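Subject: for your reference before the review

Hello V.,

The reviewers asked for a structural picture of the protein, and I figured it would be easier to keep everything in one thread rather than splitting it across files. Below is the amino acid sequence we used in the manuscript, unchanged from the supplementary table.
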Amino acid sequence: MKNSILKSVLTTNNSIANLALRLPVGIILAAHGSQKLFGAFGGYGLEGTGQWMESIGLAPGFLMALLAGSAEFFGGIALILGLLTRPAAVVSAFTMIIAIVTVHGSNGLFMSNNGYEFALSLLAITVALAIQGGGKYSIDSTIVKKFELSEN
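And here is what came back from the structure prediction:
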């Protein structure tokens, strides 16, 4: 690949462990994002989520709901596919930091009190994926291999 930035974004290790991280986290993030964007799975959609975000001080609420929902939904889909894994993981990690700081942090660690343990787990996994990339069974890996083969 001639573009070294693109290559550094897409290059990954050859581990299947990344798939074990990408799939469940991608599914979870995409489902949460679809709650915010589309009202799926008992969610409130953009309007309801926006009103809630406004009520906790994230204004403008509709825009914040759109950004968070898009980061989760499209980031989750990207993680499932292993497409642009590092950027998707960075955006998802940032979203989890915001969730911890604004919503869950003051409730302590445990989920039973709406704490941050789940968001912290997703944060840890997305940071690991941002560092390692998509792994062996990712579109990123396939793209890199194809470009490296075509350069020879």
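For the response letter, the relevant points are probably these. DSSP finds seven helices and no strands in the chain. The chain has a mean pLDDT of 94.

Happy to draft the paragraph if you're swamped.

O.
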